[in-house]
Fold this protein.
Amino acid sequence: MKLAILCGFIVVLGMIRPRLDPESAGLIVLVCGLVTLAAVLGFVGATRRTFTGLPVVGEGTRVASAVLVVLRRTGLPFLGLAFFLFWTFVYLGLWWFNPESSFTGLDANPRFADFFYYAVTTAFVSPPGDIAATSRGARSATMIEMLTGFALLTAYLSSFVDLARRREAPQASAPDDAATGD
């Protein structure tokens, strides 16, 4: 179900039709930068509220637990969408800064969906063949997105292995029926 929700978000954003010029791209980058800042502050606030409600085990463990609780509550569809949109705005900002040489394969006035398409496909370590990063900044951003996308995917998949190990491990705190005489 969560994957279907994320796919729905991707389809909706992929259908955004208006074309961009450098001025409108700059305005979008500015507004999205402010929205990103507000989202980060909201995440920090939610993490702090969660942190105070957790039992004191160790400061580092408590902080990590609070972050993980907030991430789990946020949910995979919104986290995936946030990741894709962050990189969409990075690429849009790079194009806004240097529209002539940052990417090839884009129209003179590309759509927002073109940058979103590039970000989603690059996140899965498979940049599209029809749009290519040509400036040093765009190439560097592409490589960083591929590394972070691969790291996030690996961490997500390893959580399933960890969950399977926990289910297979015997419960250390459960009393042994034979030892208690039950």
Remarks:
- The helical segments are 2-14, 22-53, 59-74, 76-97, 112-123, 136-168, 177-180.
- The CA atoms of residues 71 and 168 lie 25 Å apart.
